[in-house]
Amino acid sequence: MDIDTEELAKNYAELADSELLKMHTSGELTDIAYNILETELTLRGISIPQHKDKPEVKRRPQSLRAHWKGQASLVSAYWLLWILGGALFYLSLLLLIKSQASQAIFVSVVFVWFAYIAFSGVSVWRCAWNSSWKGWGYLARVIVIIGVFNALNALVEFVPWIKNSIGYAGRMILGL
Fold it and tell me: Which domain holds residue 137?
């Protein structure tokens, strides 16, 4: 949206000196608005006070280490690591099944996938409160818990020899 500088100058001309000074010291105006406001103050013969700088937006670090430590944003931990990264690993497992890769390669990828699930799940869990609303943190944590159980279920489905080797007690626990 473009600022109509003539309209803004007209509005400032109608305001009292005290209102203009209050606006100037607030630190909430755009650079264009400050220029117009300072022009109006100069025309009135009022010395221009120092205005607050706009508060600097603190950016959270987005490295993998920052995610692991819980210092990154929940948005990046959830959407990039948990959802996108998890989907890519899951798709790679499906492709390995379709290509009938050797069992050793498949099992290796499954272990890497579970390591990734652990990493991304811990990252989301620790970054849960780095959002604008605490509800997102609670929701993300619930989704991580459900996702871990889904991953365990997928493991049982992907690797048939686990079904045969876990025994009766394991089948009862996993509901097989």
Answer: 64-174
